[in-house]
Structure formats: C-alpha cells, structure tokens
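Course exercise 7: structure representation. Students receive a sequence record and must write out the corresponding structure in token form. The form below is the worked example handed out in class, using SNX10 protein (201 residues). Read each field label carefully; the graders check that inputs and outputs are placed in the correct fields and that the protein name is recorded exactly as given.

STUDENT ID: A-19
EXERCISE PROTEIN: SNX10 protein
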Amino acid sequence: LVFIMHLQEFVTVLVRDPRTQKEDSWHSYIDYEIFIHTNSMCFTRKTSCVRRRFREFVWLRQRLQSNAVLIQLPELPSKTPFFNMNNPHHVDHRRQGLQEFLEKILQDALLLSDSRLHLFLQTQLSPEDMEACVSGQTKYSVADAIHNFASLNRRFPVEDEERKKGKSDADSDSESSSSGLGPSDDSVSCGCKASPASEES
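STUDENT ANSWER:
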C-alpha cells in the first residue's frame, strides 16, 4: 500500500525585530525583519530573512495595486504624524499592522504571482533595483536575485568573515544593484503557476 500525503501548502510570515537605523546625522528610521517560512510552490526559497522600512511597504502596496486593479488590497497601518519611533507601543502597533498586511497579501494567488512581491520578501534590493529586475533591465533574473541573495546570507563562518569586511558598504539605505547578483546557472523558476486559490474561511 502506498500512502500519498498531500501536504497543505502554508506560508508563515513574521514581521519582527524593529531596529532604528541612522540615515544621516539628522534623520533616523525604523526597519523590520521579514521572516518567511513556506512549502509553497510559488516561492523560490523556502525560508528567507530580509529587512524593510515602512516606505518600502508603501512602494510595494502601490505597485501591487497598479498591477491588480480589481483587487482591493489590504491597508497598511496609517502613517500618522504623531508616530514616535522612541515609543515602543507605536513601533509595535506598526509592526503588527505590517505583518497583517503581508499575511493578507500572501493569501491571494494573483498577488503571489507578482515578481515584485517575491523580490521584496526574499532579497534586499531597493525599490529601483526591483523595478529594473522585473522589467528585464538587469543582468540577473528575479530567480537569480533571490537565489544569490540567499547564498550571500547563509550563516557560515567564512561568509560571516566576508560580511564583516563588506559591512561598511551595507550600511547605507539604498542598496546597490551590484551586490554580487550575476547570472547564476541555477535555473530556478520564480512565481506561481496560477493555481486556483482554495477558498477557505
């Protein structure tokens, strides 16, 4: 007898570990770690960890909305003028709102087929570089970018040493597109084969 188990697909997303980053001597911002763990066919990597700031979430929502006009996208936590990055309650409220936003988006099969979403969740490319990659203006494909970002981030001792050496470059907010993302011979296909979403409440 052969038992075939159909594993239910899942995507776990956590928005956590808010950190204050200095932009220059006057300005600071908070970024959040986005952790993904999934067995979904839609994802090139099954686990990943990146850091994103609020305005990158705003960019993502605008791009997803312009590509999926008929879908009512979930709202981001409101950008209040009273937001105080030194107030742990404010920061945690925003973190929760960002997590709920991603959880809702990841339940939609159409949004899951958008390459920008995958680059946002699984690479540290800037919005400009994500746009360039999606529109074919980079030497690397979406799958290359995700694959190479993951291999840069494996936490082995050798790579930790390399990261310490290269840390001074990585401190600026705008990531450069020359982050070792050359073409890779790994032909991973990225994005969903639009499988019908199972309607579950």
